[in-house]
Amino acid sequence: MTTRVPPKSLPPLAGLCSLNEAMKPGLSVAGCVSRLKHLHYAFRRLHDTFIHRITSEPLYELKMGFSHHAYLCAEHASALRLRVGEMREPPLGLEEVPHAALQVFFDEILAAPGTQELLLGIYEVALPALEEALERHRELTNPLADQPTLRLAKFALLELDEMCTYGAQAIGSVVSTADREGASSWLALLDDCLAGAGGIDGAGAAAGGEIVRRYSAQPHVYNPTPRRDARFPDPYNMGVNAEVFLYDPAMPPQPKALMMFYKRLREIDVPEMMASILAQTPGKPWAYHRDMTRQLWDEARHAMMGEVGFVQLGIDWPQEVRVNFTWSLALNTQLSPRERHGVLYYIEQGLMPKTGKRFEWEVAQASGNPLSALFQDYDWADEVLHARIGRDWYLSEFDSPKEAVEFGDAAWSRVLMGWARWRDQGLTQHCNWWPGLYRAACKKWGIEPDPAVLSFDTSYEQVRADLKVLSASG
User: Fold this and answer.
1) pTM summary value
2) Within 13 A of 460's CA, how many CA atoms are on the CB side?
3) CATH number assigned to the domain with residue range 25-217, chosen from the 4 options 1.20.1260.10, 3.90.740.10, 1.10.10.10, 3.30.210.10
């Protein structure tokens, strides 16, 4: 048997790098781990900042963007935790603050008084500093010895670049020259914090000098009250009960798919509520935050599916639809975080039978709208995942599934929707906007409105249906 001499053109070292590059000095394990702990802390603090600001951020696009970026930060923090655990580091010390100046840096961004300062702090200071630190790591570490870290850095840099691109567009849209000038001294404070910490990775020489807190002189307090922008002019409106219409067997599939686009867009209130659970539930393991943030991001995606559904039909949804925040408002202000999680679990379990997400998917298929069918297909898959997350992180706190469901049911029963009070205070007239939406859709479809669908009474007052019962029905 002859042994062939390998062709010289074959890439060495599994294609990772050249032999010369693999022979260069690089970071030690201790040096690598020190940097990774700093970066892990940065991703965690950014995750927490996004979570804390979702509910009170009025701009819809930013609410969705913060949900996405919280999820990305959670994933990268999780990957870094795993990598540190692979590198002779028990105990890991991942819950410790790596440097006092770095803590002030992120405290200041969390406490930013307005959207403009928040965007500047995150997208023009914190995320670019993270990018620079990861690029430095790629330059300094040995590409063969530290390949697992370089793989994590590659994916993190890819998504950090996308986050910064989003942030630049958001800043260009929201932040004025006067806003930037007004924030200049605070941005200089953030730079001083980074210099005092030796950079976001802690690898540089730490600058001296006292750092005086500004916005974080008083600790940030989470605001659980949801806010919406001008495209949500009637957020207390409970004049249309989508579930009653959807589950009426006499109603045809096509308008039901239209109503489901509203149901999806209405899910904007789920991230608003889930953010409150994450922000106000201390002491949970990181895996809890990672899984719950994944669910929060899925719910934001579902809301955007509803938005896209309306756009596909050529419907001006801010004009035709009244998307409320009554669910997140009531739960965030009337229940404890554990009770809110109980309500979430109770509702999710109700979505699993055939009368739940399977039913919505079947309606979407029958409607003749391929986009609706696609969205409901993925919505169903996501909700199955969410039911598992509920079992992992909520059900595990109870002695039995029955006890867990009863706790969520009891909490949901105590929630008071101020239907009449909001009307009497002049906050809403609970107008029934469904006929206008249906007429607009029929015009786009090129059909005459069905009188039965047009006149269907979807009002909350007429139906007198408890939202708990409706949710439990799927």
Assistant:
1) 0.94
2) 21
3) 1.20.1260.10
